[in-house]
Amino acid sequence: MASSTQDHQHHFPTAIGTTSAPPPTPSTTQPNFTSTSDSSATDLLSRLLHRLPPTLSNTPLLLRRRSSLATTTSTTTSPPSLPFPELNSSLSTTLPSISELGFFQLTNHSIPSDLARAAESDSISLFNLPRHLKHQHFPRIWPLGFDDDDNEEEEDTGAGDSLILDSSCSTDSSELSLNSLREFTREMEKIGFAVVEALFSAMGLQNPAGDDPAGLSSLVWVSNSSGFTDSKLDGSGKFYPYVIGLHYQFRSKSCSLLADPGWVSVSSLMDSILVTLGDIAQVWSNGKLKKIRGKPTYNMEEGTNSLPLSMSFLVTLPLESTVSPLYPRVLISNHGDTKDHKKLKEDGDCETNQVNTFNSFSFEDYAWRVYHERVPLKDPLDRYRV
Fold this sequence. Notes:
By secondary structure, the protein is of the alpha+beta class. It has ten helices and 17 strands.
């Protein structure tokens, strides 16, 4: 599934230690599969928008101008519901629908609602810490730690902050009590790995991670946003690549997801787990699975100036991984016909060529680029498409 192609100096730590030097920019040896002027213009626009001062980039005028670039729908979709105890059989029958949507919801799972709300309370207490304590307890070792866009001169309101933790919720402090958050994360990890196993089994593939526990990595991403900082216009704020994302639904609220066709509005059940298929799952499936970019964007709470705290558990990859399609989507027969894999086997035809829809690429280079560029105008996987 994942193979190491280079020796990097920064990896996911098992426990967050002292602050290390910032990681290098993506390798210049990684091939660039799109050299068109359109791609260059998009990247240039992304860098320019990212460097605008907050007082300018967050104005309603710029919001209206940039929000017109996203396609939204007025229809709210209820995701397919899969009872967790019946996950394997349910995925086998609903896979075509889920493949087109890129999301579904899990019900009857093993996480008690009181544990989830205790974990949410732990997270809120972290966002209420003064800025200097946030950075003291969670030093930045990319991609882990608190990220407030380094707005040191602005008032520390906690708005726009995001916290990324490893699966152990490691900190540099013994003063923080995160027992509920750690237990919640352990339970989410079990569910996440079970979903990956069931998803690819339903597609007729072995688990991409195999029996290697280091084949997959886990992150907890907690966000607290307000105003225009983390809105639809930039794809739910910063974006980190993942196989699947698990998003516990603390309330019965609609949210927006950035799918392949554009923005979709989704309403899931309270205490269910919204599962989104990520960009890595799309590459592994060789384009068969539709994906969701980033995290859900929740509507602003009525009567408040802030968006609710969001908690996402991401099943992702170690930084040193190489991402490649796991099987060809299209095969070409001896007669020159193109058929999908199943049909070719049924007809007993002999394959002569395997066609991939994605080139292989370095996960670390890709993750660094999409996390920092925040490009909402173009699918970041486009440059790797064949």
